[in-house]
């Protein structure tokens, strides 16, 4: 395999893994506060549909991205009302949100199927994009891929180096102690839940405005579910999350190459490859049971009532 082919594979893997990285990053931050939102798939589909519709109607890709993020936030707000205000079960509500988002996106986006738009184009960063091998790999992408790089770095810095990150982790570990210290636990959880919705909407926008500039039903192909698994298997660590997202992208491209090479294996089995490989590797990374328990937010999925201590 020559250097040009390896470079092309890595670039394709990075692009394929980007939407998974964005949505998983939002879920990781959300779970750090103790909120378990299983509605990622539904929010991502709504973001993809709304972003495509917004871009097609307005003629602006930026408007499409903003509309997608708003749609994701509205879905997350609905989840927040049900779980944070009305204290409904987070697991059941998240599953219902995915079903709702899947059906609503298909219904509202029915008339959009078959339409195409001019999606985001790569922007080469002067000088950096000319670096041998790594230049085209890292510095010749569209604006949403660059945004994913920034989101990863910013999220890590905020979670580990700022007071905001300390508050987020405190709420996730012991909300009652955080409340006793004057932290508005429900407010923090609402804000982070909305942020997770915005990330899901952005991931959906990437799917319909960049990766494949079109809309079709269920175009996210289960990435919302894979994102949920990645967060757990990555032990709520951003570095492992990045690895898992790009691994998924790499295996997705490899299985297409295997099909193109005419390997005599069922196409259905080959299509399973990226999901199986991602889960297997992330299970190996999270095989330390003690480390996994220590990394899990103590209040994950548990409702909080400030009136009860």
Automatic annotation (TrEMBL):
Gene Ontology MF terms: transmembrane transporter activity
Membrane-traversing stretches: 50-79, 91-113, 133-159, 190-212, 224-248
Compartments (UniProt record): Cell inner membrane
Topology in the lipid bilayer: Multi-pass membrane protein
Keyword terms, alphabetized: Cell membrane, Membrane, Transmembrane, Transmembrane helix
Keyword Cell membrane attached: yes
A single cellular component GO annotation: plasma membrane
The name this protein goes by in its record: ABC transporter permease
Species this protein is from: Vibrio ziniensis
């Amino acid at each position: 395999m020559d250097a040009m082919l390896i470079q092309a594979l890595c670039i394709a893997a990075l692009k394929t893994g980007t939407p998974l990285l964005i949505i998983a990053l939002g879920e990781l931050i959300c779970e750090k506060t103790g909120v378990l939102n299983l509605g990622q798939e539904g929010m991502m589909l709504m973001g993809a549909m709304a972003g495509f519709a917004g871009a097609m109607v307005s003629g602006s890709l930026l408007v499409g991205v903003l509309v997608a993020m708003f749609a994701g936030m509205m879905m997350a707000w609905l989840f927040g009302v049900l779980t944070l205000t009305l204290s409904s079960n987070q697991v059941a509500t998240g599953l219902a949100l995915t079903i709702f988002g899947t059906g609503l996106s298909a219904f509202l986006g029915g008339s959009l199927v078959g339409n195409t738009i001019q999606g985001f184009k790569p922007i080469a960063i002067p000088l950096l994009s000319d670096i041998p091998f790594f230049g085209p790999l890292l510095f010749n992408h569209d604006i949403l891929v660059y945004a994913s790089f920034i989101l990863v770095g910013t999220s890590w810095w905020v979670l580990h180096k700022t007071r905001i990150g300390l508050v987020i982790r405190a709420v996730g570990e012991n909300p009652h102690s955080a409340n006793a210290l004057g932290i508005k636990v429900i407010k923090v959880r609402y804000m982070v839940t909305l942020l997770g919705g915005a990330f899901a909407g952005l991931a959906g926008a990437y799917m319909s405005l960049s990766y494949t500039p079109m809309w079709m039903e269920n175009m996210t192909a289960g990435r919302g579910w894979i994102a949920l698994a990645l967060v757990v298997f990555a032990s709520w660590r951003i570095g492992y999350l990045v690895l898992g997202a790009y691994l998924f992208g790499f295996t997705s491209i490899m299985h297409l190459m295997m099909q193109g090479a005419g390997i005599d294996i069922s196409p259905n089995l080959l299509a399973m490859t990226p999901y199986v490989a991602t889960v297997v590797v992330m299970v190996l990374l999270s095989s330390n049971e003690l480390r996994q328990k220590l990394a899990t937010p103590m209040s994950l999925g548990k409702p909080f009532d400030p009136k009860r201590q």
